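To assess whether ligand presence alters the predicted conformation, the chain was also submitted together with adenosine-5'-triphosphate. Input:
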Amino acid sequence: MKITNREVQPIVTPGGSAGTRLALENVSAGYGHVEVLRDISLHVAAGEIVALLGRNGAGKSTTLATIAGLIAPRAGRVILNGEVRTDSTARRVHSGLAYVVEERGVLLGLTAAQNLRLGRGSIEDALSYFPEIEPHLGRTAGLLSGGQQQMLAVARALASNPDVLLIDELSLGLAPMFVQRLLESLRRARDEGVAILLVEQHAQTALNVADRAYVLAQGQVVLTGTAEHLLSDFNRVESAYLGVS
Ligand SMILES: Nc1ncnc2c1ncn2[C@@H]1O[C@H](COP(=O)(O)OP(=O)(O)OP(=O)(O)O)[C@@H](O)[C@H]1O
């Protein structure tokens, strides 16, 4: 199942290529003189959860940052809703991208309600995903648990009614109960047609919710397939983490 990027592109997404909301075409990117991503191609369709897996330092966060426009690709193209994007993060967010960063992006000195108001959606829509936030709306976000902060971040992102949702490390350090609630919200968003690219430390957790996955190693896609296929051949996923097949 080891693939080259040339082979990644012809994969037919569920819903067909016309439903593709996000695509990277042969993207290379990095920091200063350091090249991190090398010739990455991937795609996510409307109504699809795609997991981006790989060991620490493989380039997962860099991939999301490049999609969001925080890093400019040195080569290749970032395509959102069929348009090649070279514009700012703010413009991409304005036109339907939501991005939950690894640090969650919750402003700890503001209340939960104020954090939700910073988003592009309504508090009501945010609460429709996580009604359990309501009793905490007046609390300072810094006093919420990690799980509650992550729910706040995901609720704010989903309330903006995005076409494409990027999530960096959904479950990091969270109790299983919170992880389950967060995964439920992603399933609902997928059913509502959102294209979701999920970076997740726990590959099994990610593959249990995802439709497809890509494994990165040393900044390259080294394995891809349906979640079902990858779960049934999990040794191969683990080998791919090390950059071997
Ligand atoms: N701001 C930066 N400047 C220089 N190098 C960076 C920077 N951010 C990340 N890197 C390097 O880029 C490589 C990929 O990092 P990245 O954070 O994308 O990996 P990751 O797969 O998300 O890992 P993790 O799971 O640890 O977050 C690493 O070698 C990292 O040290």
